[in-house]
Batch of 2 targets.
Target 1
Amino acid sequence: MTRWRAGVTGRMQDIPASTQSDQALYSKELGRAIDDVIDPSRSDAGHDGTWSYLTLMLFPDLVVKRWGPSADGKLSVDRWIGAQLGRDRNYLKLSWRNWDILGEVMDEADPPLGEDEFLSLLERTALARNPRIIRVAAKEVIRLDAEHGMGRSFFARELLKRVTFQTGPLVLDLLENNELAALVSEQAKATIAAFTKPRRSMLS
């Protein structure tokens, strides 16, 4: 436990969490640190008690830096302990899960992927069981050109809807990596085309 605390806090001590972009980077690096230093087993990671213990007993200073008290002085139960019903939002658990699934793909994003993008990428049951799909889709989200006039969060949500629809006629788990990349790329292009108005010619 002492080694875990020293290893993780040492990684995080110089990383700010003041702006929205800082917070996204902080969450990414926290997930990376937990994975590198603690390397949770699947069985331990599957127990909510593991994360609430780490949050309350081992790393409260790291969590409070991102999720401090609200205006009424209370801490978020969802972020500190985790939801008793519905989607689990324990901060340490989500930070680690995001890194565990996406890994160094997250390093390609500038600005870092935010909570809305992770929600679109990771909360669809039909896709969550296949990390390959999530990583390929994340790369398309990261590649989105600002000139298309869409925010990444909106694009991620619409892209994942289209990819999820493909799980009906296709068993995506059986596709080779290049086939999966081609399918997701095609859906990304279709998403952009559906929500991008063609520019008017200056000669018209």
Note: Residues 20-38 form the longest helix (19 residues).
Target 2
Amino acid sequence: MALRQKAIFSQANDSEESSMQERLRLHYVAMTRPSHLLCLAMRSDAVDTKSRDALSARGWHLIDRVDSS
């Protein structure tokens, strides 16, 4: 029984890995299309300070947007 559970778990991981690879591929395609401007929006807690600093060092302009409503 344990071997069967391991095989099922492995198949689920393979499926998740494949799905993640496809999402990353689509993000890559979408982000390499624009020739002048690319805007991305995400929750501020999704990007840590180290990543923000690295993006800024590479020329990204990061803007904090807070909803005032």
Note: The mean pLDDT is 82.
